[in-house]
Design goal:
By secondary structure, the protein is an alpha/beta fold. The protein folds into two domains: 2-155 and 287-336, Quinone Oxidoreductase, Chain A, domain 1; 157-284, 3-Layer(aba) Sandwich (Rossmann fold). It has nine helices and 17 strands. The strands form four sheets. Strands 3, 4, 5, 8, 9, 16 and 17 form a seven-stranded mixed beta sheet that branches. A six-stranded parallel beta sheet has the order 12-11-10-13-14-15, with helices on both faces. The longest helix is centred in the C-terminal third of the chain and has 12 residues, at 290-301. It is globular and about 60 Å long. The chain starts with a strand and ends with a strand.
Length: 337
């Protein structure tokens, strides 16, 4: 099969991904082989490829095939797989496999599993013509969802869903969403579905336009107005969600959130000069459980989500990741083998 391989982390400008012919994966008794139809391109892929997460042990092996939001059809089934059939469409999210035995798995928080395997980071992912997956960690795709639009549900979709859930969004609340990329434009929609009003913040005019299209109550550009003053005009936010990887943005989000409010951070960053006396509740958020993933698919199948995508060939992965780095991707870029 053909795949994009990372042999050594390096700046994306040096084109570190190589389009190579490699053996098609062989599966064990509890696995399936997927013919990849679409794979979303995530900023997490970029961080791994450029070596930003080496201190966290990512990538866990080299060479590695990136990609962790995958949709495809089942080509082969292991002998112990009972609930899936050849030809069915399935999806894979970053949570590739979990142990099922640790305290997190046993308390409905399997996204925090201490022994989790992560698609495209600890095992090979979906920047390829084929990939293997663990049968009990794949999801059947509703018939009314197209491949390219379904793929982003498996990272931006689940990530946004959980972040909005942790923000405690509900009718009448104001939720600030900082960063309106692949994840942010879905978070706006999930928050709106909860009955909340969303104020979206981004430096990118195209991203703010998307925010308006998907239902943001108000959009703010820090390049054109003072963010804190703008939020003050609405009585500040009940909660804020951050998907922009910037210490300055994290600080901004805390400042515009009411005393005692919730700030959900879905990126790596630093909290500077934290004012304990405001009693803000800071929550980290990372992907989501299998049950939450099923909820995302159900919501999407009901037509309640608009997934903005742009399509590219698999071998264009380096160029697409560079576009993502300089904020030129509108919505979510999706690679098609």
């Amino acid at each position: 099969m053909k795949a994009m391989l990372l042999y050594k982390p390096a700046p994306i400008e040096t084109r570190p991904l190589h389009y190579k012919e490699v053996p098609t994966p062989t599966i064990s008794e509890g696995e399936i082989l997927i013919k990849v139809k679409a794979c979303g391109v995530c900023r997490s892929n970029l961080h791994m490829i450029e070596g930003d997460w080496i201190d966290m042990g990512v990538p866990a092996k080299l060479p590695i095939i990136p990609g962790h939001e995958v949709v495809g059809t089942i080509e082969e089934i292991g002998k112990n797989v009972k609930n899936l059939q050849i030809g069915e469409r399935v999806g894979v999210q970053p949570l590739y496999n979990t142990c099922g035995e640790c305290e997190y798995c046993l308390t409905g928080r399997e996204n925090l599993c201490v022994n989790a395997k992560i698609t495209g980071e600890t095992v090979d992912g979906g920047y390829a013509e084929y990939m293997k997956a663990v049968a009990h960690h794949v999801y059947k795709i509703p018939d009314n969802l197209r491949d390219a639009e379904a793929a982003p549900l498996f990272c931006p979709g689940i990530t946004a869903f959980r972040a909005v859930k942790l923000s405690e969004a509900s009718p009448g609340k104001i939720i600030g969403v900082f960063g309106v990329g692949g994840v942010g434009h879905m978070a706006i929609q999930f928050a709106k579905l909860s009955g909340a009003k969303v104020i979206a913040v981004s430096r990118n005019k195209d991203h703010l336009k998307i925010a308006e299209e998907v239902g943001a109550f108000q959009v703010i550009s820090p390049l054109e107005e003072d963010v804190i003053s703008a939020f003050k005009g609405f009585g500040f936010a009940d909660a804020s969600i951050v998907f922009a990887p910037s210490d300055e943005v994290i600080e901004q989000a805390i400042k515009v959130t009411k005393k005692g409010g919730v700030v959900v951070i879905g990126v790596r960053g630093n909290i500077r000069n934290f004012k304990f006396y405001t009693e803000h509740v800071i929550k980290g958020s990372v992907i989501g459980s299998r049950a939450e993933m099923q909820n995302v698919l159900k919501i999407a199948s009901h037509g309640d989500l608009v997934v903005k995508v742009e399509l590219h060939n698999l071998q264009e992965a380096n160029e697409v990741l560079h576009k993502l780095k300089i904020n030129e991707v509108k919505g979510r870029a999706v690679l098609i083998p």
